[in-house]
Amino acid sequence: MSTFTIFLALIVVVAFLLIVVIMVQNPKGGGLSSSFGGGGTQQLGGVKKTTDFLDKSTWTLATLLLVLILASNIAINRGGDTIDSKALDQDEATTAPLPAPLPATNDDATATPADDSTGK
Question: Which of 29, 36, 96, 111 stands the most exposed, by the fewest C-beta atoms within 10 Å?
Fold first, then answer.
């Protein structure tokens, strides 16, 4: 298993967790934190602590996702130090040769009025 594959799997997992954490939040104070408003959750820390946890986990997961994406760019197997672009290759001529002109034909269909011998 290559390093890039490991990074790719971690990116997918972190992205999924980030989606779940964002979907649980409600910008008006609802969501998961308000559904835990009664019963034994007041003893666990209350609504404010749940909102703080969701906010911190969102920022942490977003930062982790960005770092994993940037680190996966380093881990991509590039297959050597070859230049794949012909635009960057300086050994080749910069101008392409012009195509050869087509041979002229003397058909009646292509005759011009100056070539017309009837005089009309």
Answer: 96
Q: What is the pTM of this model?
A: 0.51
* d(C-alpha 37, C-alpha 30), whole Å: 10
pLDDT at 112 over 80: no
Locate the domains of the chain by residue range.
Answer: 1-15+49-75
Which amino acid is it at 6? I
Give dist(CA 29, CA 54) in Å, integer: 11
Average of per-residue pLDDT values in the chain: 74
